[in-house]
Amino acid sequence: MFKKIKKYFFYQAFNTNDVKRKAGINKVDSVCILFDGTNESERKIVHKFKKQINPLGNKLVKSLAFINNRLPLDNIDYDAYNLKDVNWYGIPKSEKVTEFINYDFDLLIVLCNRMLPHFEFIVAHSQSRFIIGPAITRSTRYFHMIVDSPESNDSNVIIQKIIEAIDSISIKN
Hints:
Elements: H1 2-12, E1 30-36, H2 40-53, E2 60-67, E3 80-82, H3 95-102, E4 107-111, H4 117-125, E5 130-134, H5 139-142, E6 145-147, H6 155-169
Parallel strand pairs: 1-2, 1-4, 2-3, 4-5, 5-6
């Protein structure tokens, strides 16, 4: 019963009908990446991917990491939120999350292995024009393009599949 109450409050906290997304992916000037950055290895993979996306430094590339702990986030040099920033029914509340949601990115890349409630809230409220990510729970509800996720949940493989998918739909000059 407690689980149903949590779920009720979670879905009452937002209305996805208010989000109006503009379709399109070409001329990508801004990219954001939402990922689970609890493990340092995942953070390194995303950092490398951000450099790969923007080798000339002419695009805005941001990321938002979820850190699965309650420790202070004072000494980190990247945008992140943790369990201290998520209320009891799954809604993330922090300045970094609000900024991430409200920025009008051209492309949102979701690198999560599971659709946790706080990830769902961020994706549902994102102002991003195009959302792509792996085949996870409720991805069909929010993502414009879904890539097959490998059974191993290897982020490098998911990133490669996302690059291939975006390349297959982008207009070549």
